[in-house]
Amino acid sequence: xxxxxxxxxxxxxxxxxxxxxxxxxxxxxxxxxxxxxxxxxxxxxxxxxxxxxxxxxxxxxxxxxxxxxxxxxxxxxxxxxxxxxxxxxxxxxxxxxxxxxxxxxxxxxxxxxxxxxxxxxxxxxxxxx
Length: 129
Description:
Elements: H1 2-20, E1 32-40, E2 43-52, E3 55-61, E4 67-74, E5 80-89, E6 94-104, E7 109-116, E8 120-127
Antiparallel strand pairs: 1-2, 1-8, 2-3, 3-4, 4-5, 5-6, 6-7, 7-8
């Protein structure tokens, strides 16, 4: 009787441990950073951004020194990833709207083009790790 209870307890414990044990991940969460240069009203604009889990954040400097941040939502398609975003900028620029597309150029490099209502038209160059 004791032996049967001990075996049942051991089997149950091993089953619970196998459920709670950490599983190996298929892919790690590594952001994809990029830099961006553009133009708005004859002023050069700059930005840096990063993307993970189809969400992105971009920190940019626009015309007249306006600094702001945009939150982006990507739609992942096989080669091309369009995005839309909403941001807020200083220097009385207020709310900014953005949209664009990023395209995989190689396995580790992507390029993109976008528009931001404060920073204007921009080109992007990024890397995947």
